[in-house]
Amino acid sequence: MDKASIHGMWSSRLAFILAATGSAVGLGNIWRFPYLASDNGGGAFVLVYLACILFVGVPILVAEILLGRRGRMSPVNSIIRIAADSGASRAWSSIGWIGMLAGVLILSFYSVVAGWTLYYAWLYFAQLFGGAGIADAGATFGALLGDAGELTFWHAIFMVLTVGVVALGVEKGLERAVKFLMPALLLMLLALLGYSFTTGHVGEAAAFLFVPDFSKIDGGVMMAAMGQAFFSLSLGMCAMMTYGAYLPKDVSIPRVGVTVALADTGVALLAGLAIFPIVIEFLGAPTGGGPGLIFTSLPSAFNQMGAIFGLLFFALLSIAAWTSSISLLEPATAFIVERTSITRKVAACGMALLTWIVGLVSVLSFNHWSHIRPFGLSLMDNIELLANDFLLPLGGLLIAVFVGWFVSRKALRDQLPDVSDGVFTAWTVVMRFVAPILVGVGLVRGVMAKFGM
Ligand code: PHE
Question: What is the DSSP string of 97-146?
Answer without folding.
Answer: HHHHHHHHHHHHHHHHHHHHHHHHHHHHHHHHTT----SSHHHHHHHHHH
